[in-house]
Design brief:
Blueprint (H helix, E strand, L loop, with lengths): L15 E5 L4 H16 L3 E5 L5 H6 L3 E3 L2
Parallel strand pairs: 1-2, 2-3
Length: 67
Amino acid sequence: MPTKKSQNIVTIPHIDIVLLIVCTIGDFQPFIALGRVLLAAGHRVRLATHETFRKFVHGNGLEIMNN
């Protein structure tokens, strides 16, 4: 006899996330992809990185943190 499976739904609260990245642009791009996925899930994502990447970060809809 088939059994009815119950679904456990877990609610994850929206959180502020800061990714610290010190690397070259090639190493940097996967973090942009990760940030975009987290942003789409409703989280606030900021990248702590070099000023050089500011335009690239903003162009992908993310925030940048630096001095």
